[in-house]
Design goal:
This protein has 234 residues and is of the alpha/beta class. It has 13 helices and 5 strands. Helices cover 50% and strands 12% of the residues. Helix 3 packs across helix 4.
Length: 234
C-alpha cells in the first residue's frame, strides 16, 4: 500500500507547479480511508532511497508528510489543515473542537542513509516562534530513532520553549488504539508534555540536554491507558 502512495507522489511531482502538486496530494490523502493512513504513518518518516536527493519528488514527499500529519490530527478528533508554502510559518495548524486550544506542528522525514542530525535539522526554536500569540502548543513529529539518543540542544530548547517532541510511532500508537478527542477526553496533556517535564526541576535544569523521549512514552501510555509491555508491543 505504501508503494501506491509513493507512486502517486512520483507521478504528481512531474507535473504543474509545487502549489498545484500540493493541492493534488491533499486531495489524494483526503481520499484515503483511515486504515490506509494508519499504514502510511508507519512509513512516512523515512524518505525512500528511490527518491533522488534534492529533487522535486523529495520536496513533495516532505510536504506530503505534513499533509499526512494533518490527516492524523483529524483522525484524533481535531480540525486541521496544511499551510501553504511559506518560509515563516508552521506547516500544519490544528484546533481542538471540544477543548478550544490550538497548535502548530511540523512533520519531519529523513533518509535512513543520513545519520548525522543536529538541532538545525529539527528547527525546534523556529517551530516555537511559528506558534505566534494565537496558538497554545507547538508539536514536532519525527521518526523516533532519528531523534538524538543521548544529549542534544534540541531537548533543552524544547523544554525552554515548551515544544512537544513527538514521534511518528507515537502518532501510530494513538491511531491504532482509536484515540479520539471528545467532550470528556483531551489530548492536551501530550501537546503540553515539555512544560510538564520542566516542572521536575532535576530534569529541566541538571539534565536539560538529555533525551526525554522515555518521558513522552510514559505520557502516551498514561493517556491511552495501556501497560508498558502493551506499549512496547504496539
Amino acid at each position: 500500500m505504501f508503494q501506491s502512495f509513493l507512486d502517486a507522489i512520483l507521478t504528481i511531482s512531474n507535473k504543474d507547479s509545487f502549489k498545484e502538486q500540493t493541492k493534488k496530494v491533499i486531495e489524494y490523502v483526503d481520499s484515503l480511508d483511515d486504515a490506509f493512513v494508519k499504514i502510511l504513518v508507519k512509513e512516512i518518516g523515512t524518505i525512500p532511497e528511490c527518491i533522488k536527493a534534492s529533487s522535486s519528488a523529495e520536496k513533495l514527499f516532505s510536504k506530503a508528510s505534513d499533509i499526512v500529519l494533518a490527516r492524523c490530527f483529524k483522525m484524533l478528533g481535531l480540525k486541521s489543515k496544511t499551510v501553504g508554502e511559506r518560509a515563516d510559518s508552521a506547516d500544519v495548524i490544528a484546533v481542538s473542537i471540544f477543548h478550544k486550544y490550538s497548535l502548530v506542528a511540523d512533520a519531519k522525514c529523513f533518509r535512513m542513509s543520513r545519520t548525522a542530525k543536529n538541532q538545525k535539522d529539527f528547527k525546534v526554536a523556529a517551530l516555537s516562534n511559528w506558534r505566534g500569540g494565537e496558538n497554545e502548543y507547538a508539536v514536532l513529529v519525527s521518526p523516533y530513532f532519528q531523534y538524538p539518543k543521548e544529549e542534544s540542544q534540541i531537548y533543552k530548547t524544547a523544554l525552554d520553549e515548551n515544544v512537544c517532541l513527538l514521534a511518528w510511532e507515537h502518532i501510530s500508537i494513538l491511531l491504532d488504539n482509536n484515540i479520539c478527542e471528545n467532550e470528556n477526553f483531551s489530548l492536551e496533556t501530550i501537546w503540553n508534555s515539555s512544560l510538564m517535564i520542566v516542572r521536575d526541576s532535576k530534569i529541566a535544569y541538571n539534565n536539560a540536554k538529555s533525551c526525554f523521549l522515555p518521558k513522552i512514552n510514559a505520557f502516551v501510555i498514561k493517556k491511552i491507558g495501556i501497560s508498558n509491555s502493551e506499549f512496547l508491543n504496539c
